Amino acid sequence: MANANPPDGGGSVRHRVALPPKEGLVKDFKSWGQEMFFHDAPLRDFKDQTASQKVLLGIQAVFPIVGWAREYNLRKLRGDVISGLTIASLCIPQDIGYAKLANLDPKYGLYSSFAPPLVYAGMGSSRDIAIGPVAVVSLLLGTLCRAVIDPVDEPEDYLRLAFTATFFSGIFQVALGFLRLGFLIDFLSHAAVVGFMGGAAITISLQQLKGFLGIKDFTKKTDIVSVMESVFKAARHGWNWQTIVIGASFLTFILVAKFIGKKNRKLFWVPAIAPLISVIISTFFVFITRADKQGVQIVKHIDQGINPISASKIFFSGKYLTEGIRIGGIAGMVALTEAVAIARTFAAMKDYQIDGNKEMIALGTMNVVGSLTSCYIATGSFSRSAVNYMAGCQTAVSNIVMSIVVAMTLLFITPLFKYTPNAILAAIIISAVLGLIDIDAAVLIWKIDKLDFLACMGAFFGVVFISVEIGLLIAVAISFAKILLQVTRPRTTILGKLPGTDVYRNIYQYPEATKIPGILIIRVDSAIYFSNSNYIRERSLRWLREEEEDAKEAGMPAIKFVIIEMSPVIDIDTSGIHSIEELHKSLEKKDIQLILANPGPAVTEKFHASKFAEEIGEKNIYLTVAQAVADCSPKLAEQQA
């Protein structure tokens, strides 16, 4: 509670900065823990409920389907069936191609669109996300696994490593959600993700040149220099013109279909079914012309039947266990970042809430189950989720419908894919990943924040010119470097008074703001910790030196008061207090008084606990800058008299 002083000369009442009531150590830790891990108050719905209702709410928290299934009706079913059939027509050809990105047989792509979506439908909270393999994660998994085991020389061990990585990616995701550590994925900034995704899209497209041009001898590296060198080496005798005609024709068809869908949202189904139509027509064409005899590479045999159990194929010991954990952690983090971003995007568009931690548990569980049923890492697909949304999906039942269609395909239709040309799969993948190159976002990042743009370009060029994992590492490193830079070098600004007001603002943002003669007002725009405390002290003294020089040149009064505006300083640690004490002593030697304005409750409490409030004097801690200036001005006049 603020204490009131007698009115000052202007007739106003000065309120002192209030010392917050002591909470106690246990209550402090409890409050910190709640804000850190339970800021969304996940147990609020359980309050004042009967035991049976709490049990039901507990089941519903783990399996959201229990909640929304009670309100399900035929109208919602109609929307879900239409959207489920639509995304199934898109996912089937994509899954076959994405499996090749992961260096796996096409059937594993289809497997990964059967079991994981069923698990997610029961546990996920997003109504719009479409689950299955995605291009970036497939490429990342394939690149990381191939660096450990050659998929051609040791296909069985390679497959086992992929399943092991999938299992541990799921464990990693579940652990993050269960321990409520979802905030960790936010360390990969939006700018870094934009650059990484753009670079991955270029890399994936370049990798498709093997199938698009009909090249048999192709580099295993992913950097642009190695890929283009491999392409041009094969130009004289390695390209197949029939393959190029098939790939170019259907890529044009798919891109035109996408253009039509963008121009008229009612025709969303046109780009959705274009890949499947392309597969059907190209497969029929190759079959009747026997183009495979002319060098056109085809998918060949795909095993019939739904997912076999693969629990025995996971490495739970041996030399590949640690590699599986490492690869699973990296790929799982990227998959998680992509899925949660997609879920949040569509939740905002439809105005409903998703729980990020529950999403992680759902995504992790589906990948653990997937690894036990011959699937590799699945996550949310933006292209399929967008189609799902535009097709009018109402709930996660659209994922169930898609899974049923994929299961029917696995049971009855896979033999028909035998003559599907690899060129059409390359065309489908290229058309799908082009949307990951977001030039508008990169331009906007450049306009807003140059450091963010550096992170974006670092990730982009790292992926394109070195490798996917190095690009990801660069993205994370630059994101962390930016955080460290902002923490260790916070902004400090000089404030001036806006004419006709008692408002004090940054003089560089508001040139009309005027400095108060003899008083230096500094605002610190950050918490003060051990990492930045010395910088803040040194920067404040530098501001003082510069202002003293300017005042001397202009014949203005010497600085006698330094006011630090502490509204943005949300916290301070021991090093921070020690640094402020040193600043106070340095100013005392210059016969300058340090004054603090509007410290927050946490800062005020620590000032009193450390006895610094007594050292500086409570009379020198003010509620506002205006109050501090009003009190300092008469004192300044007396000193100058």
Features of this protein?
641 residues; mainly alpha; Transcription Regulator spoIIAA; 2 domains; two-stranded antiparallel ribbon; 26 helices; 8 strands
In the sheet with the most strands, the strands line up as 4-3-5-6-7-8
Write down the Rg: 31 Å
Unreliable segments (pLDDT under 50, ≥5 consecutive)? 6-11
Q: What general outline do the C-alpha atoms trace?
A: elongated
Rounded mean pLDDT is 89
Report the major sheet.
6 strands, mixed
Q: Write down how many β-strands occur, each being a DSSP E stretch of 2 or more residues.
A: 8
Question: Which range does the strand content fall in?
Answer: 5-15%
Organism: Arabis nemorensis
GO molecular function: secondary active sulfate transmembrane transporter activity; symporter activity
Transmembrane segments: 129-149, 161-179, 191-209, 239-260, 267-288, 325-348, 360-379, 399-417, 424-446, 458-481
Protein name: STAS domain-containing protein
